[in-house]
Amino acid sequence: MSKIEVGTKEIIEVCDGNKAVAYGALLCRPDVVSVYPITPQSAVGEWLSRFHDEGILDAEVVRVEGENSSIGVCYAACLLGGRVFTATSSWGLLFMYDGLHFVAGYRIPIVMTNANRETPGIFTIGNSSQDMMSVRDTGWIQINVEDCQEILDSVIMAYRIAEDPEIMLPVMICYDGFYLSYRKEPVKIPRQDDVDHFLAPLSKTKRMVLAPEDPRVYGIPSFFPQNEGEGCTEFRYKHSAAIERAKSKIDDVDIEFERIFDRSYNGQIEQYHTDDAEIILVATGSCVGTARVVIDKKRQEGLKVGLIKIRLLRPFPKEKLGQALKGKKAIGVIDRSVCFGWHCGHLYMELKAALAFEGLPTTVPTRNFIGGLANLDITEEQIERAIELTAASLKGDAVNEVTWLSLE
Amino acid sequence: MRIRGKYESAWYQAGPVLGRPVGDWRYVRPLINEAKCCRCGWCYLFCPTSCIKEEEGHFTINLDYCKGCGICATECPVTAITMIPEEVE
Lengths: 408, 89
Prior knowledge:
The structure holds 2 protein chains of 2 kinds.
Chain A lengths: L10 E5 L1 H11 L4 E2 L8 H13 L5 E2 L5 H13 L4 E5 L1 H6 L1 H10 L4 E6 L13 H5 L6 E4 L3 H15 L8 E6 L8 E5 L2 H8 L16 E3 L9 H34 L7 E4 L6 E5 L3 H14 L4 E6 L1 E3 L3 H8 L4 E6 L10 H12 L8 E5 L9 H16 L6 E3 L4
Chain B lengths: L10 E3 L1 H4 L9 E5 L9 H5 L5 E4 L2 E4 L9 H5 L5 E5 L4
Antiparallel strand pairs in B: 2-5, 3-4
């Protein structure tokens, strides 16, 4: 595509998830971009560097020696009022682990994308949600998406969420590495004017800026009126309250996004054929697309089954899930990661906690299905099997609480 | 709920902090032997807290900020700096 075309009119380009990320970041006009390459995310940095080289990305592109530095560059720039963008995956995400805490604790509105990939230890270069799940307690807002269009749109929405004065928190847009990072599909690239219009409210917000006449010191609660412990406690509380506020903000931003771009992702969770459903399948990420096909098929066979796609992982949409699952008779959860110490998947553990929080009956049978680790496909057959086992548990058959689909 | 601070996180104005002495955990202090000092400024360059200053041909140490790390004494090419223990008053 010629560089003149980008943003002047809405175009449809067949591109992969990495390029969709780069387009999303480009259209939000970041001031500073620092991306260290790692499979399967490398093309994000390559595309952004190319946009910069072609003169369409007016940003400072900082080359660094690792992810620990890229997050450092970004948080310094963002702390001083800049709009920043970075991207990573797996080992890179873990190499910036201290940075993730810094950023969240300082309440810096960084937007980052993470191409989900297996974590070190059992060396694989393949997809799973293990990396994304292992940083879910760092205080970031985490959104996991289903397809390439949703990646681009979520990056644009992420700035509205992160930089909102009521939120001021970093947002991580997670997308399945390999499946989405390399899958090419038609993606609508919005007009620059529309994105500018969508992000315009942020220009009114008062951000901290680099002001030598009013120097600031960050991150040290010992200057709190009382003492360090009380200061830390108060800031933790405020952080936790802010991430709770993000739930409704994500819904609101989604509605506003739909008004301008005519696309919606239903905010925190999406329900698919759930109204009259007795059995509910819960999933997140790229396998939701496959699950939709299976749900359609099972519906044709007369089974009252529905699907809930979880977009928002942090904060966890427990209220929305509570409403959606009220009165349902059996729940199956598909997980692409392993929650050590609970011997189940992360999403399953989170969902069980949400059910208890929302006061739903614990007698409803819930079953967990772990699959798709290290780039194994979560196949239609496996999802059918998951639905069958969940339905069997409803009938009272003995079904293991956790089934490892690929080991059956 | 008791909320006391006006900020959402630890974003303080640095004014009161900038003048705050931070050398109080020092247990040894550098002492410059004026007779041996060759005025090379090596200690001034190496000091991580920038608390060494040149004044009228002499190098002086601002003990409000010196933490007693001893880098100046180690790096001094003519061993003009010795670290002496702080005494309890």
